[in-house]
Amino acid sequence: MASPAELFQSAFAAFQQGRLQEAERGFSKFLRKDPKHFPALNILAIVLVALKRHAEAEPHLKAALRINATSDATFYNYGLVLKALNRPDEALLRFTEALALNPGNAETLNNRGTVLNDLRDYPAALADFDRALALDPRYAAAFFNKSKSLAELKRYDEALAACESALALQPDLAEAWFGRGYIFGQMRMPAEAVEAYGRACQLNPDMPLLKGNLLHQKMLVCDWHDANGLIAEIEADLIAGKLAAEPFGWQGVATSERSLQRCAELTNASRFPMQALPLRASPTGPNAKIRVGYLSGEFRQQATSLLLVGVLEQHDKNAFEIFAIDNGYDDGSDIRRRIAGAVDGIVDISTLSDPQAVNAIRAQRIDILVNLNGYFGEQRTGVFARRAAPVQVNYLGFPGTLGAGFMDYILADQHVLPPEHRQFYSEKVVWLPNCYQANDDRREISVRAFARAEVGLPAQGFVFCCFNNAYKITPDVFDSWMRILSAVDGSVLWLLEDSAAAVANLRREAELRGIDPARLVFAARMLPAEHLARHRCADLFLDTLPYNAHTTASDALWAGLPLLTCRGETFAGRVAASLLQNLGVPELIAAKRDDYERMAVELAENPERLSSIREKLSANRLNMPAFDTRRLARDIETAFRKMAERARAGLAPAHIMFPANDSGQ
Question: Which is nearest to 579 in space by CA: 613, 556, 607, 601?
Fold first, then answer.
């Protein structure tokens, strides 16, 4: 029988030679004989980390620290384990303890910086990366991680420079190429982002999120080369449990609720694990006001706020106290001024780390916290993961499940989320009795009367339009549009000018389908009131699938422009149908793509019928639920009351459905 010393030497030799399974067995056997052997506890933990069995490594590191709490290496390894287990607060403490023992360790500084990035404390993270680089100026990973901090602080030129420094030292560092792609995406330079992500794919195609980010940037410039192949790869990866795409970009192409749920769940498990148990609702008297916080990074002139501002103004201040939890900035716009005037207070969390933001929200004693971002925009999902409020609600900004146990409810309606689809949502569903999407019945439409020539349209001919973002235009949708143009002589398609690359690619794709590229006309972005006014130059809005027009649908319908949609299979693909149903014009909803194409052609060739629909739309606009802002505010308040009642009674969230008259209509 081998002696303990021989067991140790045999296990150590296996470790040195990379025979990790054998090393694990050897050290485990050795520790049964000598459970307080400090080096063996540390090495076994390192072996388990290399085998990605982080949870099994933790007890060995705890045991090692009970024996010797003066080893910076043990604290460092423990920090790595906690980071991998998505316990950033604890990881930060362990790395800090390691640095107290050995402040000149560049690797520890770099890894603490990555945890600070995860906690969104970007200035502190930058300080750590700079210290690491002062110790080791050739530390490529520290340059890359520094670029992430700078990008999140919107210091994009500096972020690119840090990426360049990383790549100068290590040209094949796939993470730095990924970082370049992310930065270019944030700078709205999708063509450059595609190039950077493509290089990262050559180096490490299995990097989390890479395929999805590449696909989304390609869709932004309408570069459809091998898009179907990339979509198939991402779908297969998601089924295999690999986080190949982030949920917002995946919504643009995914055609099933199950796929979107899977993507959200993988994202949540990887990036936003629950950090705290649910809060208990504070007991209050029966007449106490319900304190509601709306958290958004876009309380400015942006789509979400354009939709929601009227609801904020219509909230019953006798029954509710409303707070804007702001992760963005004040752009000085009229929308921002209206929001400030509508709420009881604005809580700025834009420069706060996640723990600090949670404390700021809890200080306001918020009963219900509404997530207006989800996985879109300037989101703060990490704040919700820490349970900033007793009740947390997913609404408006992200049309789908967040796949997160810390989100209690999602606000929807039966058109966008039929009851039989609730299995695909981690949240309990609150079905509002009318259209779930907020709309502002005070939206200004400029009195300016645009001539067709002013906006680049021909004097004669039918004008189809779609002002959706380019990433929503799939090859299948474009095929339908080109068949419609082919069937309607002299017609044109008026699209939003997203980027020069997208314009060039769309014109090329039209020509490949036998359509004169000149029949595609592109509209530059302009102020919202004038944008609404120019809708008068169009005859029919053609919707996209699988991701519908949302704010753009509200724009068109508020401006009096008929919109033709095809009802999809997902929440994001059913929003326009909900709006049309709640405007009393269901005849503009197609059940399948063939019907969509046929109906578009028929409407273009039957001006009397189209004029009749316009008149109906105009008559219904202020009389039907879709644009009844006060009615929606009452519906949402009813939902809030029912959520708060359950929470204060100590009851778990449950699906909620109520008729319109429950809202006092």
Answer: 556
